[in-house]
Design goal:
By secondary structure, the chain is of the alpha/beta class. It has a single domain, classed as 3-Layer(aba) Sandwich (Hypothetical Protein Mth938, Chain: A), CATH 3.40.1230. It contains 3 helices and 8 strands, in the order E-E-E-E-E-H-E-H-E-H-E. It has helices spanning 54-62, 81-89, 99-111, and strands at residues 14-17, 22-24, 27-29, 33-36, 39-41, 67-71, 93-97, 116-120. Strand 2 (22-24) and strand 3 (27-29) form a beta hairpin. The longest helix is centred in the last third of the chain and has 13 residues, at 99-111. It is globular. 28% of the residues are buried.
Amino acid sequence: MQLSLNRPGEYLFVRKVAAEAVTVVDRDFAGSFILAPDRAIEGWPVRTVSDIDETAIAPILELKPAVLILGTGPRIVFPAQSVLAEFLGRGIGIEVMDNAAAARTFNVLVSESRKVVAAFILP
C-alpha cells in the first residue's frame, strides 16, 4: 500500500504541539500567537492568562471570528469573567482548552470552513 501526504492548501493547520512550541504547517512558533485559517499573527503579548486585556483582545476581534479557541498552555486556565463576557457580549463563542486540545479543535473547525480563530499561550 502506498501512503501519501495530503496537505490542505486552503487553510493553515496545526501539525504538532509541544510544551515550548506549536508547529503550524511546517513552521514552529515558540511564543504566543493568534491563528486564523488564512494567517498567523506572531508576537501576541500574552505569557499567562492573566495578561489578557483589551489590548490583547483587539487583534482577535479584528479577525471577526464566530468562535475563539483559547489555548492556555499545558493545562486549562480560565481567564477572568470580564474577558469571557467581552467575547460573549459580541456574540463570539469562546472555548478554553489546553494547547493540544485547542490545536485539535481548531483543525476540525477550520476543516469544516467555520469562522474560527485560535490563540495559543506559550511561555
